[in-house]
Design goal:
Blueprint: E1 4-9, H1 13-23, E2 30-36, H2 40-50, E3 53-55, H3 58-62, E4 68-71, H4 75-87, E5 91-94, H5 103-115, E6 120-122, H6 130-139, E7 142-150, E8 172-178, H7 179-185, H8 191-199, E9 206-212, E10 219-227, E11 231-238, H9 242-256
Parallel strand pairs: 1-2, 1-4, 2-3, 4-5, 5-6, 7-9
Antiparallel strand pairs: 7-10, 8-9, 10-11
Helix pairs in contact: 1-9, 4-5
Length: 261
């Protein structure tokens, strides 16, 4: 049986994990054929290490006719490349879910996927529980909120940083608003919040609170859903971003598995 062709957008540490998982036998149904990244020299080094071809642009990547393209790059990469990937008859696995906070773009990508009989797989990133969130939203109107804890230092190069934040001695709220507003301010740090919102009440109707916590390491999310039929709370902590890459591996496994979790 021929293996499915997998291409990667992004050649950083997350797709390094995906490529290594393939090499270690977690994805026996796939072969890695190509990779592209913002820095061609880095993509070339990645390709040499993992036995695939480096690409300078999306058209070169799609020339390999991949069955799946997995993205671990940036919101802009999803905005720029999603429709090209889908029109090229490839399925797309997305980590930079924040791009879909734009409802018009989300609908356009969904329609492009349907027109080409392809799928967009939203990887869970650092969270989970999409099944219960979607089920609750189907059963009755719901309200949704997300509380996130972050290390003060992780906000240093963001609009949420202010003088003295690194010296705080107790928890301090640095943002409250909708997930759509959050992703506009923090395009690389709250992708998971948009995924949660898409699976539940929507980016414009899901409230997000972000607290800076001194001495904290990693990311922690508390998701609360309230509906007429169901109420749930999910608490998820991840020490590093590695869980996001492994969620892509899980998506790729599910995409070809006869039993889907």
């Amino acid at each position: 049986m021929d293996k499915l062709k997998l291409a990667l957008i992004g050649c950083g540490k997350l797709n390094e994990i995906v490529a290594k998982a393939l090499k270690d036998g977690y994805l026996p149904e796939y072969e890695l054929v190509a990779v592209m990244g913002k820095d061609y020299d880095r993509a070339k080094a990645f390709a040499e290490h993992h036995g695939c071809m480096p690409c300078a642009d999306i058209n070169e990547l799609m020339a390999f006719k991949p069955d799946f393209v997995a993205e671990a790059a940036s919101v802009k990469s999803i905005q720029d490349y999603s429709e090209t990937v889908l029109n090229g008859r490839s399925n797309l696995v997305v980590l930079s879910i924040g791009a879909f906070a734009d409802q018009e773009f989300y609908e356009r990508v969904k329609n492009t996927a349907a027109r080409n009989n392809r799928r967009v797989y939203i990887a869970s990133g650092a969270v989970g529980g999409f099944d219960i969130l979607r089920t609750a939203a189907l059963m009755s109107p719901i309200t949704a909120s997300i509380s996130a804890q972050k290390a003060p230092g992780s906000l240093y190069h963001s609009p949420l940083y202010k003088d003295g934040l690194l010296e705080i001695t107790k928890r301090e709220q640095v943002f409250t608003g909708t997930t759509k507003e959050a992703i506009a301010i923090l395009p690389t740090k709250v992708n998971v919040a948009v995924a949660i919102a898409l699976a539940s009440a929507g980016p414009e109707n899901t409230i997000m609170n972000i607290d800076a916590v001194p001495g904290f390491e990693g990311d922690e999310y508390k998701i609360e859903i309230q509906g007429e039929e169901i109420r749930t709370e999910l608490n998820i902590y991840s020490r590093t971003s590695k869980v996001a890459a492994w969620s892509v591996v899980a998506v790729l496994q599910n995409a070809v598995s006869p039993i889907v979790f």
